[in-house]
Predict the 3D structure of the following.
Amino acid sequence: MTKCSKASLSLLSLIMGASFSVIAAQAQTPSYSLQVYAGPQTTTPGQNISVTVELTDDHGKSVQDETVHLTYIYDGVSTSRPGKVSNGLVSFDVQAQRIAGRMIFKARAGDLVSNYAPVLILAAEPTAFELKVALSRNTDFVELTTATITDVFGNPVSDQTLVALDWIDRTGVKRSEAVQLSNGRINYSIMCPVTYDAPLKIRAVLKNVEVFSSDLSTLCAVRKDRA
Amino acid sequence: MILNSLHKTKRLPVAIGILLSGVACAGFLSSVIETPIASNEYLHEHLRPSAAQANKSWIGDTFELPVQDRLKLSAIVTDIERPNWAPASSTAVTGQALAVAKKAVCQSEAEACDFSFRLNREFSELHTNKDLRVANVKEASLRVTFQSIPEVEAVVIHEIAHETRLLRFYQTQSGWTQKTSEVLETTLIDVKSRDGRFTSKFSTNFVGINYYPASASWKEFWTGFPVEEIKSDLETISSMDANSVRIFLNHDYFDNRDTQAEAKAKLNVFLDLCTAQNIQVLVTLFDLRPDYTLSNMSGDIDHIDRVLGTVSGHSAILGVDIKNQADLDFQAWGEGVVKGWLTVMARHIQIQYPDLPVTVGWSNPNSALGLNGIVDFVTYHEYGGVNGFAERLNTIKSEVGKKPVMITELGSTVWSPLRSTRAAEAKQASRLESQLNQSTAANGVFVWTLNDFEHVGSDVVGRRPWRKAQQRNFGLMRPDGSSRPSKAVFQSHATTVATQSIN
């Protein structure tokens, strides 16, 4: 009975001691806060993203001279950059990756992990593309198509981006309309003008890129005859 | 039963009683409301930010933050820290800054409350995210912390400090939001070390004159500035063995951009003329400017710097009287507001011009101890009865401790519609003699005044002709240049004091 009690007491004191150690350790660990701010929220490859990391202590006060690590994935490669906070802040200039998509920034300070700050990377300016025109099954229409339109890094230009289309003959612009990209391409049936003065072309303008079709007088010949 | 009987038999007296008590209540309430003495509600009326000030308050050559953002940030800070302001939606303030905002709110009249008013705020960019998502702003200011004491309905200055703070802002969908407010450095302004600083200066017993030329009193003194007349008057004062004068710098003339350079030049000439006659000058600032608006304090500090910046080292200056008879403005402005303003001005002079002793010329002995803890020497005016003059002085002396005490205005008018001129002059002399005889405990006396004045403006004593006539005729000298009996009394006193100081 006595031996049993002593053993119980020893075990109890061990547990209590361990508990106190844990509590003491917790009390000494400051609950810092790590925040990441990144902007702009949408950008294009190669452009600058400004990322700022904020480190504050458990009273919300700015921490001085602590090292934080900014981490992000750039074109599939995990990257980490150290920086020292001054008055709670440190900023990094990061180039937007070449692959369109999302860059996610987070920071670490010791065991502390920040929130995630995402930045959307959209395709940059498109490169020149070729307009293909074929006879449509519908009378008076032609089929206008392109391959996938991309930027210089091969990123497809975003869907729903508007492309301005103009019918142009010898006298100038005959008619204008717009079409949205779908799957990065133009795929559109377009009605020939009622009358025109050959040669007849379609002009497509996407952002700063302007391309022309070949002469469509042949494809829209029926209507020409009617005129 | 009682009510019933009252209802039947005493309806009229009860009605009159109710009416009278209603009037009494209304009177009491209006007196409380209309007399904003030391009410912090009243004080809050003065704590409004100014867009122009906010614009000027950013220092630096280049900024990451566009001007609109800078204005917005300074407006947020000023708004958050405006006493009596509660954040309604918390859209402009979060985190630690919210605690600052809550601390600044002094809506309860029943509980003691501290709130700070910051002067000369200067903002500078410490760190700005290039996409303007988060910004660290450094603010340097002079913090004046007021404390309300509900028990006595008073507002007092609790602390004055130079303070640097770090303010952090970040962008939300509704715009910039303040997140933190951290004090980086605080330097409390403690001028206790000034005790005993002016012992040497006040080892002289000052006998002086409140001075305006006869032809140019109050603001006309500086616009007209009749040099030959001034020179002659200073010779007269010196010949009477007086060693000091008290002058008044008209605020508008010394503050106006068009006249301030001319004003300072004239002040320098006056001080040089006084030096030539071994006369010390007690300079009274902010004359004829009854305005204690706290949000103007920065401008008032600039005014002090403009005036004292060029003359503070002049050997003729005895000291600085911040404001003449400021206690007369307690009723209109509130005692807390006036004393708060005076305290800030006094502390500024003491910090920037440490060799200039500072005082406030209180209008009567009862007010003399008003800022005893702040001023370097105590000054008050004696227009009360001759009886009790010495007792009043001795009481003040015993209260102020080692600080010098001076009576910076005493004297009487000879204008009296019921008395002959000769009798009035005799009375003026006998009253002055009695006062001077009772002034031995004072470190200085200044008589009002050397001359009768040709003209006294309505801005000095109002429009009533008899008040103007009284004010015109306080001189030791008659308008024809001859001496009144009071001049001999004054000269005798000055000579005695001068002889004592030589011995």
